[in-house]
Amino acid sequence: MRQMNMSMQDKARELLVQDRQHQEHINDNMLNRLAEEEQVVEQTQEQARELLVQDRLHDDHLHEAMLSRVEEEQSH
């Protein structure tokens, strides 16, 4: 009987260890996903900033071209 109780206790401990390892694995996976998602957000934000800079430069170039054209037309 004692041996049976010990065996059940050992099995219960083993199951608790397995459950804890499983929970740690799930937590690790969630943390890894979160880190990957944060990295994607950072990359997207960086790309958005770069596009805004390019758009501003393009607008500045168009503005300068229009000013040059007006000056050219006025000088003729």
Polypeptide structure, described:
The chain has 76 residues and is mostly helical. The chain is built from one helix and no strands. The radius of gyration is 33 Å and the shape is rod-shaped. The model has no long low-confidence stretch (mean pLDDT 93).
Mind sketching the topology for me?
Elements: H1 2-75
Offer a concise description of the structure:
With 76 residues, the protein is an all-alpha fold. The chain has one helix at residues 2-75. Helices cover 97% and strands 0% of the residues.
Give the proportion of residues in helices.
over 70%
Average pLDDT taken over every residue: 93
Counting DSSP E segments of at least 2 residues, the number of strands comes to: 0
Gyration radius over CA: 33 Å
Q: Proportion of β residues?
A: under 5%
Number of helices: 1
Alpha-beta classification = mainly alpha
Low-confidence stretches: none
Shape: rod-shaped
Order of SSEs, N→C? H
- Summarize the biggest pleated sheet: none
For the terminal residues, how far apart are their CA atoms?
112 Å
